[in-house]
Amino acid sequence: MHDSIAALVRQEGWHAEGAAARVHYDGGGARFAVEFYADAECVLYWTVPAAAGTDAEDAADASTAADDSTAPATAAPVPRDDIPDPLRRRIREDLAAADVDPSVERREV
C-alpha cells in the first residue's frame, strides 16, 4: 500500500482500495464519493445515487416503470467546479494531514 493511502485511511471516513483511497460525503442533499489515486496523484469526485429503497429514490421512481426500479444506479463523475467549497477544502486538509501536496486536489484530469 502506498504511504499516502495508508496516511489517508487514518483520516475520518477514508478507506483504502488498492492504489486509491475513498471517502463518502453526504451534505445538503448531495452525495459524493471522493477518490484519491496515489499513482496519478489526482482527486476525482463522483455523484453517489441514493441506495435502493430509500425515500428519495422511491419518490423519484414513482413516475417510472416498475422494471426500471431494479436497475442499479450508477455513479457519475462531477466537474470539480460543481463540488461545494467546504468539501473541497476538507479534502485538501485531509491530503495535507496525510503529507500529500494538497494542490493535487486542484489538478485537472
Describe the structure in brief:
This protein is α+β, with helices and mostly antiparallel strands and 109 residues long. It has three helices and five strands.
Describe the protein in words.
By secondary structure, the protein is an alpha+beta fold. The chain contains three helices and five strands, in the order αββββαβα. Strands 1-2-3-4-5 form a five-stranded antiparallel beta sheet. The chain is globular. About 13% of the residues have low confidence.
What secondary-structure arrangement, pairings included, does this model have?
Layout: H1 3-8, E1 15-17, E2 20-27, E3 30-37, E4 42-47, H2 55-61, E5 76-77, H3 85-97
Antiparallel strand pairs: 1-2, 2-3, 3-4, 4-5
Question: Which key features would you list for this structure?
Answer:
109 residues; 25% strand; 24% helix; five-stranded antiparallel β-sheet; alpha+beta; 5 strands
Question: Mind telling me the C-alpha Rg?
Answer: 16 Å
- Report the mean per-residue pLDDT as an integer: 82
Biggest β-sheet description:
5 strands, antiparallel
Spatial strand sequence of the major β-sheet: 1-2-3-4-5
Shape: globular
Structural class label:
alpha+beta
The percent range for strand residues is 15-25%
Question: Helical segment tally?
Answer: 3
In terms of quaternary structure, the protein is: single chain
Count of strand segments: 5
* N-to-C span: 23 Å
Low-confidence stretches: 55-68
Which percent bin holds the helix content?
A: 10-25%
From N to C, what is the helix and strand string?
HEEEEHEH
